[in-house]
Amino acid sequence: MSSEQKTTPETTDTAGPRPWRLTCAAALSALEGLALLAGGIWMLVLGITGGGGDRRSGVTGGITLLLLALLPLLAARGLLLRRGWSRGPAVITQILALPVAYSLLQADSMAVWAGIALAVMAVTSLVLLVNPATTQALGIKGPGRTRETERR
């Protein structure tokens, strides 16, 4: 046996330019992550300074939003890098955004417009994420279709 390992580059469906749908889905996911990050910083600052009333809930809410911002931001980075694992967190983020959008739509204030924007972003992202071109660009084969199955 030779001590050299032969590495052959695998040709996958992820070769070639990134589809615009994947780029748009990553941008929307990053935008949601940045919005959560900004909201978390705002709540944290209000909690620390005591401007929001209850200091403990402000700090807790701010830290929670900062941690929640990691999910769409990591998903956006994974989508841009064409990682198959990134579609799951991105889809979960959009599904979680829909009830938030619905609750904002029930408000009697300017929050209605935020609810409309969030709902449009979530539905658009979901459509982009489940698109066959996006699935192929991420190298997701589908249930029961592994690399071993394709070689047969």
From TrEMBL:
User: Which residue spans traverse the membrane?
Assistant: 20-45, 57-76, 88-105, 111-131
List keywords of the entry alphabetically. Membrane, Transmembrane, Transmembrane helix
Q: Which domain of life is it from?
A: Bacteria
Q: What is this protein called?
A: Integral membrane protein
